[in-house]
Amino acid sequence: QVQLQESGPGLVKPSQTLSLTCTVSGGSITTNNYYWSWIRQPPGKGLEWIGMIGYSGSTYYSPSLKSHTSISRDTSKNQFTLQLNSVTPEDTAVYYCVSQVAGGDFGSWGQGTQVIVSS
Fold it and tell me: Could you tell me which of 18, 42, 24, 16 has the C-alpha nearest to residue 94?
């Protein structure tokens, strides 16, 4: 069973860059047909898919967030990273990293990490 763990700062100032890392264990992020997503949940709102990186390194982003989002990976560490540029208080949320097999539902979830954007 794949396990995921998010890490990163809990507090970011407006206009700065948010960077979160997901460390994967129990499986490789280069395993064929696996995709690795970032999902967030703002307070009082539903889940929002941010984007994902595939087993080959291809990336896909939510159209509403694409302009200031970047997802990358470090295969040597079995990690993938979310960067969200020019954050605003509206980016305050619990951020999750999630695994998914191509064509399937979301599989394993990290425990989530709270990020607050505030000066």
Answer: 42
